[in-house]
Amino acid sequence: MQELTYRQILSTLGGSVREHRRDSLLTPLLVTGEVVIECILPFITAQLIDRMQMGAGMDVVVHYSLVLLALALLSLACGALAGVTCSVAATGFAKNLRHDMFATIQRFSFSNIDRFSTSSLVTRLTTDTNNVQQSYMMIIRTALRAPMMIVFAIVMAFVTGGPMAVIYVIVSVVLGAILFGVAIKVMPMFRRIFRKYDKLNDSVEENVSGIRVVKSFVREDHEKEKFNAASGALHVERILAFNMPLMSLAIDVIYAFVIFFGSRAIVQSQGAAMNVGQISALITYGFSMLISLMMFSMIFVMVTMSEESARRICEVLLEVPDLTDPDNPLYTVVDGSVDFDHVSFEYSEDAERMALDDIDLHVKSGEVVGIIGGTGSSKSTLVQLICRLYDTSRGSVKVGGHDVREYDLDTLRNEVAVVLQRNVLFSGTIKENLRWGKADATDEELIEACRLAQADEFIQRLPQKYDTYIEQGGTNVSGGQKQRLCIARALLKRPKILILDDSTSAVDTKTDKLIRQGFRSFIPETTKFIIAQRTSSVEDADRIVVLDDGKVSAIGTHDELLRTSSIYRETYTSQNKQSHDVKMGEIEDEGAERLKGGEA
After folding, report:
1. Burial class of residue 375, CB neighbours in 10 A (0-12, 13-18, 19+)
2. What are phi and psi of 414, to 5 degrees?
3. Rounded-to-5 percentages of helix, strand, coil across the chain
4. Tell me: the pLDDT tens digits for 178-212?
5. DSSP reduced 3-state for 529
6. Paired residues of 344 in beta bridges
7. What pLDDT sits at residue 99?
8. pLDDT score recorded for residue 291
9. Which helix (H) or strand (E) holds 384?
10. Which end of the chain, N or C, is surrounded by fewer C-beta atoms within 10 Å?
11. For residue 523, what are the contacts with CB-CB under 8 A and spacing of at least 6?
């Protein structure tokens, strides 16, 4: 991925500020007022101390006290309002940033998602966004306050103490150079840290989703070792830990310098060159300056760390979806006919081989097509081209007589229902999950779809029936129950094309057969693609396509393929050993009868 410039990063992130611009601009103004007043307070306090040394009465003390109180309250008001506007701006910015990223991810095609791992996207939506939020909060408030306080404190120190304030300039320059050197050293480390965050999240996600397998194989210790390796420190904190001791040393140096030389000046000049009030103000300004330097170092570290987070966020926001709508899209799918015209497909330009090679297949609307083949034969890839989850590398896929690239994406995908190999249910009730297929479906429609998918029987046995809550990922239902619910969800769409990607593998053959019978009665005009590992799931299909290494090996009915396709015959034999001999005998007898009839 091309390296992003600072201008690209700032302009991209700036687009997520939107309605929070007013608060973002108001915060620095309030901070400026707060800093100016805070710098005036020690100066007035020094004057009060000097007047008291000269024997001023209570009226002078009261006057100065009221002025100091008013300024303190005004500074407090500016600081409090700045805190409110800063929080509103930063949290709103982070909310918009997450929303923009999530919306961008929803537009991604499969090829876009393949460029980012799931764990990496989660890290960018959570950890990276939090880092950028904290950095933004510091930039619009603390990052302005700290340098302003340093500058004003040094200026007021020169006004109050004269040449003695040179020590502040020296300390500021030295500390600034050290902080800059630390930042240059740790910046490359942060890039490696965020890659570790991705691996860490990947390890956690994999472990939690497969916890049953981990426990059944007693691999807890192995998983702990993987986690520890993924979460190993890069010693950035060890380098950054030098900041605080350096700040403490600088404070001690300034205190010792001001107290020693200030006291000597007072004693030698008997108060003519400097007085106690000036020393008090100098110490206050020195403390304010060093506290601001310490804050500035924290900001520097946070901004340095969040730079990589900002870059990773912008990579998502600037990722251009590979699949987009055409200029004048079609909004109507006439029927469910599907034509693969010499289709070839590869996942990336540098792929070693084609996933699909010269597929030429023509399916009529309402036809039932079985697809069978070994693992890695690209069965799923073939059907994913129909709803344009990927685009072909060569050739074209047509639905309803038109190239899928001519359709509006939402229109096309609304007419294609897919029950994936890995069935996914979302947290919510059974009704809420089913209505993903049809948002306004009535209870009667839900029940009808579930009966056809052979799901109503087990749902009726649940305590809450259709209002039963499904845990995230459908962990509180079995694999077969999950598959049947997903099939019912797809049936509710009444699509023009239905794709079952090995989606009945977890149900028994009797239930599988009943589900297929339901398809024929409920959606007879819908074109059906049934991907399966077992031949019993496709043997009553109008045609069966046998794929081998991304190519069409054979096409025919169940009986035809038993005679002509060695791949299909071997698959059938391995799954039906007992009935194979009888079946093959019937086919041979049928062939002999045909031959005899031809001779006659």
Report:
1. exposed
2. -70, -20
3. 65, 10, 25
4. 766 766 666 666 656 656 666 666 666 666 666 66
5. strand
6. 394
7. 92
8. 73
9. helix 379-384
10. C
11. 491, 494, 495, 498
Whole-model pTM: value is 0.64
Residue, of 327 and 586, whose pLDDT is higher:
327
- Cα angle, residue 220 at apex, residues 214 and 221 outer, rounded to 5°: 145
What number of other Cβ atoms are within 10 A of residue 162's Cβ? 14
Q: In terms of residues, how long is the chain? A: 600
Average pLDDT over residues 422-451: 84
Name the token pair of 381.
């890839």
| Per-residue model confidence (pLDDT) at position 514 | 83
Kindly list the distances between the CA atom of residue 458 and the CA atoms of 245, 292, 441, 447, 522, in Å, as whole numbers in the listed order: 67, 66, 20, 12, 21
Output the pLDDT for position 600.
45
Calpha distance 397→418 (Å, rounded): 17
Which one-letter amino acid corresponds to residue 496? K
**Most confident range, picked from 222-231, 238-247, 285-294, 450-459:** 450-459
**H-helix segments, 162-275:** 166-209, 211-216, 220-230, 236-240, 243-269
DSSP E strand boundaries for 290-379: 338-345, 356-363, 368-373
Q: Which one-letter amino acid corresponds to residue 388?
A: R
DSSP string for 112-171: HHHHS-HHHHHHIIIIIHHHHHHHHHIIIIIHHHHHHHHHHHHHHHHHHHGGGGHHHHHH
Tokens of 102: 């999530």
Is 486 exposed, middle or buried, given 0-12, 13-18 or 19+ CB atoms closer than 10 A? buried
Q: Which element (helix H / strand E) includes 527?
A: strand 527-531
Task: Please report how the helices 166-209 and 243-269 are oriented relative to each other, as an axis angle in degrees rounded to 10.
Answer: 160
φ/ψ of 124, rounded to 5, equals: -70, -35
Is residue 593 packed enough to be buried (19+ CB in 10 Å), middle (13-18) or exposed (0-12)?
Answer: exposed
Comparing 111 with 128, the larger pLDDT belongs to 128
Q: What is the mean pLDDT of the chain?
A: 78
Mean pLDDT is lowest, of 54-58, 181-185, 324-328, 558-562, for: 181-185
pLDDT > 80? residue 344: yes
Position 93 pLDDT exceeds 50: yes
Alpha-carbon gap, residue 136 to 522, rounded angstroms: 56
